Hints:
The structure holds two protein chains of two kinds.
Chain A: E1 4-5, H1 10-15, E2 20-21, E3 25-30, H2 36-49, E4 54-59, H3 64-72, H4 78-83, E5 87-92, H5 94-102, H6 107-115, E6 117-123, H7 133-149, E7 153-159, H8 170-174, E8 177-186, E9 190-200, E10 209-215, E11 218-222, E12 239-240, H9 245-250, E13 255-256, E14 260-265, H10 272-284, E15 288-292, H11 299-308, H12 313-318, E16 322-326, E17 340-342, H13 351-368, E18 373-378, H14 379-386, H15 388-404, E19 408-413, H16 420-429, E20 432-439, E21 442-449, E22 459-463, E23 470-472
Parallel strand pairs in A: 3-7, 3-8, 4-5, 4-6, 6-7, 14-19, 14-20, 15-16, 15-18, 16-17, 18-19
Antiparallel strand pairs in A: 1-2, 8-9, 9-10, 10-11, 12-13, 20-21, 21-22, 22-23
Chain B: H1 3-19, E1 23-25, H2 27-34, H3 38-50, E2 54-57, E3 64-67
Antiparallel strand pairs in B: 1-3, 2-3
Amino acid sequence: xxxxxxxxxxxxxxxxxxxxxxxxxxxxxxxxxxxxxxxxxxxxxxxxxxxxxxxxxxxxxxxxxxxxxxxxxxxxxxxxxxxxxxxxxxxxxxxxxxxxxxxxxxxxxxxxxxxxxxxxxxxxxxxxxxxxxxxxxxxxxxxxxxxxxxxxxxxxxxxxxxxxxxxxxxxxxxxxxxxxxxxxxxxxxxxxxxxxxxxxxxxxxxxxxxxxxxxxxxxxxxxxxxxxxxxxxxxxxxxxxxxxxxxxxxxxxxxxxxxxxxxxxxxxxxxxxxxxxxxxxxxxxxxxxxxxxxxxxxxxxxxxxxxxxxxxxxxxxxxxxxxxxxxxxxxxxxxxxxxxxxxxxxxxxxxxxxxxxxxxxxxxxxxxxxxxxxxxxxxxxxxxxxxxxxxxxxxxxxxxxxxxxxxxxxxxxxxxxxxxxxxxxxxxxxxxxxxxxxxxxxxxxxxxxxxxxxxxxxxxxxxxxxxxxxxxx
Amino acid sequence: xxxxxxxxxxxxxxxxxxxxxxxxxxxxxxxxxxxxxxxxxxxxxxxxxxxxxxxxxxxxxxxxxxxxxxxxxxxx
Lengths: 473, 76
């Protein structure tokens, strides 16, 4: 991958996984007033002041004196940067520029060399039109090739004449990347500014429309699907990977100890590999575990799935690393008996006290030794066996108790089967929410809440032959 | 063209290049920027080149005029 060149807009660099690919020519299009000039100049200003990379702003219509004046509003003293030979705002006609770019040792090459220029903004590429589409396309192609030859990372500004129409022009094909700025209606009477990257060769991007504001320091973009980070939770905690690469990336390494996550899954979704991978990783990390056996599968199934992930569940049981809560009287694999806590005869009133008696001493003694615990709850089974009101009462208390002793919790639940109020309550109580559902012939997964404030777009789940048997795309 | 226009137009051109020190313009281009006709400016530009206020690159219609920035004098 090419070296990323920072855009000067932190949110945009986040979308670009670091910045524009070095040497790329990126089309930035938008209607008047969307902030194309500001974006272009912010890119050059950042280059000059932070990365010490010289830049050229080529303006065909707007006079430099106006640009110097306008940019002072953001505190950017362009004249000073010109004195330091880190910037030049060049006013030239499009025909002369092209002529000089093509000429060996022409003006353009001379200035680039003299300044050791690394960044260029052309305002605007729309003025390169000469009436004939074929010739205009050739001109834009020529410019892109010259910029590439000189290893210049460049922004080609383009005026969008009809903001209502998404036009695909030859510039879109020729450019290495396309960024679209727009002013859109927001809640009837308001307007919002959005930025969307629709193409970028050489780097992965975060798709979608992202809202930005023009502040007194320039453009400030807030990536969509980002929420406020829960900093209080993240201090000095260990993070155990889920074993699913993309999910770990989204969760900044995995699931932090002491946090509670919900895995919301609809009835058709297959969550066994997601859960299996998370559970196996916790055991492999040396954590001790408590898990509720779901109504729809047995401990034989759990043993088989753990074996697929390279974990011998019987060995974990024998080492006191795996305990199970079961609401049903049913057979268990040989050797598991001592680890299963039967709940079928326990009333709602006795529930907490019973669990405390059975697990309290073990967990407390182990916590004193500094061991970490992981618990997996199947709320679907709890709903069916103990009812909604018990879950609402039990759950908040259980999450708080778990947090108090530093337990990490994963709660399996199907939001579709519970009312809005209960699902909102569950979501609020937990630090993270991972949703998975089936739509048509595809299964999706989305992180909708995380302690880092990151959310993801819906990712496709693809089955693969090796561990963890799924891949998120 | 009357000589009375020469000095004001010289000032207009000089001021333009002072304010936009990295402007590279042809006669037609500058006329467009200043809202004058090329005929009015032709003689003025020749004069500014002679005075070393402007530099000329190339010849004829495609000649490019740019500002000959005065060296800064630093007073310590």
